[in-house]
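FIELD: query
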Amino acid sequence: MRFTDLPTPCFIIDENRLVQNLAVLRDVARRSGAKILLAQKAFSMFSTYPLLREYLAGTTASGLFEARLGHEEFGGETHVYSPAYTPDEFHEILNYADHIVFNSFTQWKKYGNLARVAGKSCGLRLNPECSTQPDDHAIYDPCGPTSRLGITEANFQPDLLDGIEGFHFHTLCEQNADDLVRTVAAFEMRFGRYMEGMKWLNLGGGHHITRADYDVDALVNCIIYLRDKYKVQIYLEPGEAVVLNAGYLVSTVLETMKNRKDIAILDTSAACHMPDVLEMPYRPPVMRAGEPGCKAFDYLLTGRTCLAGDVIGEYSFDVPLMAGEQVVFEDMALYTMVKTNTFNGMPLPLIAVRRADGTDEVVRMFSYEDFKNRLS
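FIELD: result
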């Protein structure tokens, strides 16, 4: 059974599933009064922005290009944070951002006056030093012992708060509301006394709000508590929660072989098309497949680059895989398109949308020129 008739490899975003997630986020915003922003670092498929802006208040950016994309293609509020700004980029960011968050008092002293004269709302990123990540997620722990992300209590300078309108902290990754509650307690213990006179508080991203077992009530209660206690606007900036389970990467089996295990070589690549598989590491779900040994036939799914470690993982299937069959990776909207690369001259997957009526529509195809234009 073919998942799509489009050429592979291809990313497909399912509009119906996207709307399901957006409806949950809009409900949270309505119940709590929070403003919810799209974290473009996870998902920047701007052809979907007209749909997303019906539900979300704006976008967050990690630098100039994302800020410009959010401003031009999404609208609403545009927030930007970077661990460090360059002078040239910062001057251009002033054309696009509404909120600018600084990672240190040094950055604030260097650029704060420029931002204030331009009418921007300025904030500081704080590090509540509350690690809630499991050990195998250390790469995503902003509260690690040597983290460069945010100002710790020891480095806080309350005499430099004039002109600061809000605080930002981001400590979570794919986590439930209980970890947010723990983080808020640490934030209040270290920085709560500086909230007087602030206008907003940004709780960052990593909230797995649209996951089936997420405690939405606990999140809403936490937001209301902070909103009422400090009389501030609360912001959330999820990325993954916006597109959770709403995307697919469809690939085709090119060849099967055996070397101690049965191996399937696909027309996609972990290294090029889903780098989180190697970085986190992350094991993507595969449609109609199971864990090794759960079904009759086990296969090691691999990419077609020359990298020996271009291996997606071992999965089991009801029937043997044959050349020409499709393998569909699920939950492939987040941190995929924004991270793809052309190592080995690998073509980038085309990008498509599955409309509400079930039809697949291509929104972007890539060519040799996209590979060549990234080089000198």
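FIELD: remark
The chain has two domains: 33-243, 247-332+340-372.
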